[in-house]
Amino acid sequence: MVPLSYYLVLSGFLFACGVAGFLIKRNIITIFMSIELMLNGVNLSFVAFAAHWHALAGQIFVFFVMVVAAAEAAVGLAIIIAVYRTRETLNIDQVNLLKL
Amino acid sequence: MTQNPYLWLIPVLPLAGATINGVLGHRSSKRAVTTVALTFSGLAFALALYIAATFSSADAPYGFTVAHWIRSGSFSVDFAFYLDQLSLVMLLVVTGVGFLIHIYSVGYMWDDPSYYRFFAYLNLFMFFMLTLVLASNYLVMFIGWEGVGLASYLLIGFWFTKDSAASAGKKAFIVNRIGDFGFLIALFLIIQNYHSLDFTKVFAQVQPIAPEIAGAGLLTTIGILLMVGACGKSAQIPLYVWLPDAMEGPTPVSALIHAATMVTAGVYMVSRSHLIFERAPTALMVVAVIGTLTALFAATIGIAQTDIKKVLAYSTISQLGYMFMACGVGAFSAGVFHLMTHAFFKGLLFLGAGSVIHAVGGEQDMRKMGGLRSYIPLTFLTMLIATPAIAGIWPFAGFWSKDEILWQAYQASWVYWLIGVITAFITSFYMFRLLFMTFFGDYHGAKVDEHGHGTHMVGHDEHGHGEPHESPMVMLVPLMILALLSLVGGLVGWHNHFEHFLDPVFKTGAASETAGEAASSVTEYILMGISVGVALLGLFLAWFLYISKPYLPQKIADGLNGLYEAVLNKYYVDEFYRRVFIKPLIDASTNILWQGVDRKIIDDTVNNAADGARHVSDEVRHMQSGNLRSYAGWIAAGSAALIAFMIWMGVR
Amino acid sequence: MNVHLILFLAFGAVAVAGAVNLLAQTHPINSALSLIAVMAALAGEYLLLGAEFVAAVQVIVYAGAIMVLFVFTIMLLNAGVEERTQGSRVSVLLGIPGMLLGSILVAWVVLRHSGTEAVAAGALPGDPKTIGQMLFHEFLLPFEITSILILIAIMGAVVLASKPPSSPANAPTREVE
Fold first, then answer.
1. CB 3.0–4.6 Å: which of B18, B284, B558, B643 could bond B124 by disulfide?
2. Interchain proximity C98–B643, CB inside 8 Å
3. Euclidean distance between the first and final Cα of chain B, in Å?
4. What local confidence, expressed as pLDDT, does residue A65 receive?
5. Which residues contact B96 (CB under 8 A, 6 or more apart)?
6. Cβ contact (<8 Å) for B639 and C98?
7. Please, what's the b/e burial string for B498-526 (b: 16 or more CB within 10 A of its CB; e: otherwise)?
8. Given 3-state DSSP classes, what are the helix, strand and coil percentages for chain B, each rounded to the nearest 5?
9. What ipTM does the predicted assembly reach?
10. C109: nearest CA in chain B?
11. Measured between CB atoms, which of A10, A70, A81 is closest to C73?
12. Residue B350 burial class via C-beta count within 10 angstroms: exposed 0-12, middle 13-18, buried 19 and up
């Protein structure tokens, strides 16, 4: 029997790693992957709570999160390709034209 | 109170005329404008005559409420009209003299390009004046009060392209406003203490109060403040300074507004409030003192003036002083009597002066006139009737009213009587001086060889004559009617008929009057003789100085150099006001209010707020660096703060 | 100490290791492969909780399609080892402490309240039939909407990533004004 809190700690840790990756990494694609990591952590916590409270809706929600993540990944990668075509770089520090 | 459903028509008819002429006048022919103006003011006069004919003292007072106006808790004011004997007298004077002056103006203003505007303003003035006179409460009276001030401003500054006319209009309105301030405070006090502004209601509450012998109290304060308002409107000391400047307006305006009707509004208001004044002896004394001093003061200034209209202006101020003197000694009906006769002869004098000015092509300086009686005999004849009327010579109209005032003043205090008699002497002197300088002697004026009336009128008829000419009939007929009234108008005072007529309003007549009359009728005849004698003395002196020995006035003026200069310059009162009140006010307004408050505080606050916003945003804009990681960093920090806050709130 | 816990810890360790490795690696392809490992481990966790369908979808869609897309893109763009540019101090100075603070706070709250209630293995009825019934009854509207969402995403991706109509000679090296 695994206590609920274990699942939640694991999920939180994954989420934290995702955030850290977002903050530290400089490659756009890696940053995008950190976002996916964050989503995964959240999914885990959804399913854990669903199991804890015997609420099926949690799983359905995970399902939808995945769908949205897929759509987001598709569009995001297309944007990255477009950016690469114009800027010739994948370094996020050099994609900073929207400044005042 | 008997209902009279036609009362509201009287003010509204001229208003309709004013509206029609004001809106449609500029595209209408002069005939149409004339017809509209004369019809509506004539109808008002006809209606007034009808009401006078069907007036019954037993049914008086009449009243009519048109509509509700203010309903605020227990305080209510309505658009309501009121007619008693006093209102009836004022009504007939205003509509009658007003109608005559309308007719006169048709001739006088015929060649003015803004013909329609003049009549629109004139009708508007009639509307406001009639509202004032027929009001049933102080607030509707105040509407009329302010309205006549407005009409006066519009008409004084009628030729507004002329700087002096525009400034004169402003001066009149502003000085009036100072008086209105006092009037308003008095109204507020009345509202506060008597919870109404309705005449009947207020006077019913004031009636049982005992007179405030011991000096200042509520009624005294109200009375003095009402008098301040009257000083502004009726040109008494210290607020008279606008009336001489008001002569910039066309002469019919001077006749109607600044002689016959508007300036008498103060006298009417004081008479209407007589119940308040009779219970505040100090206030009544203030009224009498101001009236007496003004009468003397203005008369002395009138001696040295050379502009024919200015002489008449100061004469008006002086005669108004007489009316206030009468009210101040409690003889309200005498004051109203003099108001009526004054409307006749002063109106006649102004219209006659207008006829003279028309004749000599715009010249208003009497030194350039003279010997006009052969050129304009009809005008001369009417002026010849008006001058003894104002001087108070029997049996002309002015004698009856002025003598009544002097008699009542004598019964109050011989000081008032003495100053009144001296003023009568001076009045007779300068009025006959005017008559002699204008109509006798040799003509000193320029030939009227061009059209136009010099600097005073715009575009008159193109006579091209070389000499003064008589006015058209449309101007002469009103003169003749007013001359007739100046001749016989005083006879209503025979055996105190007029006073008895006004008794139900003033209620004082019966007891003390007959006592005084019976007790010392000998004294009365002696005083009558003295006043007539003094008037004849003035005539003689004027004849002596201006016909017999015409070189004398100049020598006297040279001899009394300083004094003469002071009198000629109206004792430098205007200059004094400018130095003491106007200049400091303008300086304070410029330096403190404009530079200090408006610029430094308000503008700078706004500017500094804008600058501050810009500085702050200058610093903050660096946050938008375009760098995604910075944004992410801020998001992470912010969400941590938010989580901490939520946990803290949850823990509490 | 039962099998459930051991399995949980095993999968958990793999997930943690994968996550840390994602941060540690410099070449994006290594990070991608670590992420795939994380996702596989999570699939295992889902199975432990009884959500079979979700685990299957995780492997098929997430690890199998999305991550493959990532790998494709990395290889298409020839991404190399990332440079160490000093872009933003705020992200490190403010973001990392913020993240740590947030995580610790949440962990503290969670651990205070949840304690030792246990989740049984296979607690959820996660079979496709149940999921399907719920999906097409209570959650029909979100289902349809997400299908539209995917459609739009496809169109967007196609438009964004398509080659611009101008010739390849002028496009890439010019600065965007």
1. B18
2. no
3. 76
4. 94
5. B45, B48
6. yes
7. bbebbbebbebbeeebeebeeeeeeebee
8. 75, 5, 20
9. 0.91
10. B647
11. A81
12. buried
CA angle B45, B51, B56 (to 5 degrees): 150
Largest CA-CA distance found in chain C, in angstroms, rounded = 66
Q: Which residue from A14, A60, A88 is facing C135, i.e. has the nearest CB? A: A60
- The one-letter amino acid code at C160 reads L
Identify the DSSP state of B373: G
What residues in B contact C94, CB-CB < 8 Å? 633-634, 636-637
- Give the chain B residue whose CA is nearest to the CA of A25: B629
Q: Which residue has the higher pLDDT, B471 or C11?
A: C11
pLDDT of residue C173: 52
Which parts of chain B sit beneath pLDDT 50? 449-464, 508-519
Strand partners, B427: none
pTM metric for this prediction: 0.70
Specify the pairing of strand B62-72 against strand B75-83: antiparallel
User: Alpha helices of chain A — where are they, by DSSP H?
Assistant: 4-24, 28-53, 57-87
| pLDDT at residue B515, rounded to an integer | 40
- The pairing of strands A2-3 and C118-119 is antiparallel
Query: What is the residue type of C95?
Result: G
Say if residues B200 and B260 touch (Cβ distance below 8 Å): no
Nearest-angstrom CA–CA distance, B538 and B534: 6
Written as six digits, the tokens of B625 are 């660096």
Phi and psi (nearest 5°) for B396? -70, 170
pLDDT in tens, C137-165: 989 999 999 999 999 999 999 988 887 77
HSE, CB side, 13 Å, CA atoms: give it for residue B544: 8
The edge-to-edge listing of strands for the beta sheet with B62-72 is B2-3, B62-72, B75-83
pLDDT reported for residue B466? 58
DSSP 8-class letter at B597: I
Residues of A in contact with B628 (CB under 8 A): 31, 92, 95-96
Q: With contact defined as beta carbons under 8 Å apart, do B638 and C96 qualify? A: no
pLDDT above 70 coverage of chain C, percent: 85
| Strands annotated E in B552-638 | none
pLDDT, residue B560, reads 78
